[in-house]
Amino acid sequence: MAGGDELKLLGMWASPFVLRVQLALSLKGLSYEYVEEDLKNKSELLLKSNPVHNKVPVLLHNGKPICESSIIVQYIDEAFSGTGPSLIPADPYERALARFWAAYVDDKMLAAWNQSSRGKTEEERAEGKKQSAVAVENLEGALRECGKGKPFFGGDSVGYVDVMLGGLLGWVRAAEELQGVKHFDPARTPLLAAWAESFGALDAIRPVMHDVNRLVEFGKMLQARQAAAAAGAGN
Questions:
Q1: Where are the beta strands (DSSP E) in 13-161?
Q2: Which residue has the higher pLDDT, 232 or 96?
Q3: How far apart are the C-alpha atoms of 191 and 185, rounded to whole Å?
Q4: Are the CB atoms for 107 and 159 separated by under 8 Å?
Q5: C-alpha 13, offset from chain centre
Q6: Phi/psi of residue 50, each to 5°?
Q7: Nearest residue to 95 via CA among 74, 67, 125
Q8: Beta-bridge partners for 155
């Protein structure tokens, strides 16, 4: 790597948050060492690098750790501004808008999806599904506004919001089989449905995207574990 930069990514293969970092690195054309973490037996390097949360992803740049996917993606774009495409808009207003919608993906949409699938009661799950529909419709509007008729949130090319949402795309597709839920329905959100196809087809994206079949098997295992825990709690 130019300048002798050394990049190491601590991750877990099924994590959408880790995938965000991999997407940013791939789009920038940056080489890095990937270290798969066993989250049941976390390495000393992970515990030392992220002592507050003990979570992946962690990016080590010349030995210095950066944590949290949103912060890491922004860091990559800034630290390697002369390499590959820019992910963060140069215009201050567009940059603020991108950060708002990137936060919305996690704070509203992802939170609603989790509630719809993991809620403890039928009422909680139903409310999660209701909030999911609202969040996805709002994101459809954001794509219309930010993309200005172009394929991506960044316009003609992939930007920050695309990377943040793109990390979830494998699980969006896996949810169709696991829960019978089509989050990006062409009938209701045609822009997001088209965005998902365009994003997943990019040359820089395909090599790092999740294997949906593998995610489905992993999701079934998690569902079985959750059901067993619930049954045990009821005894």
A1: 33-36, 58-61, 64-67
A2: 96
A3: 9
A4: no
A5: 12
A6: -130, 70
A7: 74
A8: 152
Residue 231 has a pLDDT of 78
Which tokens in the block code for residue 185? 């329905």
CA atoms of 58 and 50, how far apart (whole Å): 7
Closest CA to 7 of 32, 25, 30, 29: 32
pLDDT the model gives residue 179: 87
According to DSSP, the residues that pair with 33 across neighbouring strands are: 8
The DSSP secondary-structure symbol of 2 reads: G
CB-count exposure of residue 198 (10 Å: 0-12, 13-18, 19+): middle
Q: How many residues does the chain have?
A: 235
Residue that the structure tokens 């990514």 belong to: 9
- For the whole model, what pTM was predicted? 0.94
CB 159 within 8 A of CB 16: no
How confident is the model over 186-227, as pLDDT tens digits? 999 999 999 999 999 999 999 999 999 999 999 999 989 888
pLDDT band at 234 (very low <50, low <70, confident <90, very high): low
Instruction: Give tens-digit pLDDT for 126-167.
Output: 999 999 999 999 999 999 999 999 999 999 999 999 999 999
Cβ 160 vs Cβ 87: under 8 Å: yes
Rounded to a whole number, what is the distance in angstroms from the first to the last CA of the chain? 57
Strand pairing of 33-36 and 64-67?
unpaired
Q: Which amino acid is at 118?
A: R
> Pairing mode, if any, of strands 64-67 and 7-11?
unpaired
